[in-house]
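Collaborator request, handled under Task 6.
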Amino acid sequence: MDYFFGFKSVISQPEAEPSPADTVLRLVERVTSSTLLEDRRDACRAIKALSKKYRLEVGAHGLDALIAVLISDPDLETSSFVLETLCNVTSSEVFDEEGVGAPVGEQFTEIFLKKSENVISVITLLDEYDFHVRLPAIRLLMNLLNNKSKEMQEIILACPMGVAKLIDILSDSRDFVRNEALLLLIQLTKSNANIQNIIAYERGFDQLFKVVASEGYSDGGIVVDDSLQLMLNLLKRNASNQTVFREESCMKEITPFFRSCQPSESDPGHSWSTQKISNVHSMLQVVRTLVSPANATQVVSPAQKNVYGCGLLSELCALLMSPGVPADILSEIICTVGESIRGCRRNQEFFGQVMASSSPPRTALIVLLMSMVNEKQPVPLRAAVLYCFECFLYKNDVSQGQIIQALLPTSTEAMQNISAGQLLCGGLFSTDCLSHWLSSVALSHALVGNINNKELLLRVHLAIAKDVAPVSLLQQAFNILQMGGKLQTRLGILTLVSTWLADSPNSVAQFLKLPNAVAFLTALVASNEHDDQEVLVQSLCAFLLGLCVVYNNDSNSNFSKESLCQLITKRIGVETFVDKLAEIAKHEVYSKALKHPQIRINTAADIQFDHEFCRLYKALESVIAKAVAPPTSPKGAESPSESELKAVSKYKDVIREQDGQIQHLRQRLAALEGDHIAAQSKIEELNVNLHHLQDQNTLLKAQRNNNVIIDESEPSSQSESSTEKLMKQLEALRLDNERLQGQLEQQQSAKDLGMPVVCSFFRPESSANTMDLELKTVRSRLDAMEAELAETKRCLSVSIAENAELKEEIDRLKKDQEDLLVLLADQDGKVQKYKDRLKTLGQTVSEDEDEELDDLGEDDEEFSS
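Structure tokens returned to the collaborator:
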């Protein structure tokens, strides 16, 4: 019983379950071998169900099969299953079903992209309107872009109408599909100007503005932000797309966006959601990209005119003065307005006339400056106001003059109105060091490139208190500098004074009249402070002292240009002065400020240098260094001694001798190069002859292997003909030789017998010499012809020997062929005999065997023939 029970347990044991790899292999085999559409579709559905949990197995065993189905199968449902499977396989994320493991999506993406036809087939499927086909196709392209962006961009560029098909999806009525296409285009347009240009030329801006309008402008969701991000990708650092944007009148499409941001009468307490802040910020970035100072002037100027012409500047100024705007958005609006008016006189005049809703009425510029000098305001907002004020004064000498003129009031009524200049001068006496810096830099921009304003500012006097007599603004600025204070205060005052004195000799003369001015600057530059902040102050003081040297009109005899240079040499040292002067350029803050007019800050302590001051320093640093340390004059140079002259003469002789040797070596080198070239040409000629002989040898071997009988008559006839020619020439030469020998003997015998000379002009000796020469020439020619004849005979014998060998080889091959035919005939007879015996014994011989035997017989006949 135990035996039968054990046998029963063995039989009833269940079979082991197949592994995931075996399951995938079976499904892949069904996909490749199924002829019915339903079977192939079911297999693709099953593979899609396994693609998340067993992604590695599906990708390793089924990727090629899935690609083949995607390219060749017209069924949309099957294509949707394949696309979803490929999305799972190429995804860069790790699915929960597959557990912990390294993502393999990038490796499968690389395999998929080996053939560009695979991507083109996916793009072709975008023409299908089916939701289950178009959406996974977009997601698959997105996965491929995330994993291999450069390769995908090149393939899509090469695909006919590839980018155009992606743009058409933006007009899809299904928001979900359209939004996925937006994300795909954002990734596709990164760092690829060609794709950006194609989208712009395919009226991509119109499609994007339609999406923004349909979503509700600034009040829309994240789709608005995505559309604006794509617009930014198309416009940043792309001058051609910016031109297309302007020529297609897209600027007027931005105006309704900012109009929707303003509070309405029904909702005065208009709130700003997080998404709205992001949307408005992105649109402001679009406007700033068009009018950025980093762009070329021929691009910025038309864009600024369009900003004013379409009413966008008016909407921005209205939003600027609206209540309830968040501080970060307000800072961005201020910078956008500043760049929109920078260097454009009409826009600057418009902004100068914008009024704020305040009591008493004030211009928007005054309200902004009041915010700038208010230490309670956020630092980014104050820095943005300074940038906007700089843009307002950029290349605007009229507004610069108005600010300085306002500091010289002519009536009591004018003194009661707060002006921009008064606010800036008031900021100089603030207790906030940042207000000192901002006010000083803002006031310096009223002096940039305007010598008249610099001289007018010398007339400005300030009274700190009622009981204190007013002092000049220049004296007051120097007093603030003397009192020390924080770093920002001193840097701001030095920036203002340096801009003031540059290119203004009268201002320099007034500054040198200030008590202790030169002594204070000299002491600071000569000090040995090693703190980074103090080094900056010393460098700025050296720059200011250098300006007093360069723009000195020598009106002050105590501090003329020459006396200041001597003072620097004695008290500081020229090398020390130049080193201190160059310290600014070594600082990181200087490099950042020089790149862009806007101040990029994280904290208030980062504000140290202004863009215009850095440009001024860069232009005048070398000028100051040359003025303070002029080159030494050659007049005072000592004449060389006699020993030095002898040494120089000796070295000259040595150099002359070496030069002669060099020339000789160069000539030898040229001769050797000529010999080398001649040898190379000779070698090439010999190589050509060698190749020719090798080709002939190869041809002879091929003829021998192909059993071709060489006709001996032709080469032998040729050899015989050449031999006959040589023999004829040899015979002619021998006859000439005998004739000349006879003439020579006759002349010798006549000379011995003393016979008279018949011709008076005939000279026996010269004739004999001539005959000797001719005889020698003929003998040499005879020897040459005999040598050539011997060589020809040798070649002929060699050819005859080779032909004999070839003939023997052909005879041997013919004999072997006859033996082979005999053997084949015997074998044919035996096969027929065995066939008859099989039939006699009752065995059946198949038709195939008969045909094979017949074919064999036919082959034998052909071979024998």
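The cover message to the collaborator said: "The radius of gyration is 51 Å. Residues 764-840 form the longest helix (77 residues). Please let us know whether this matches your experimental observations."
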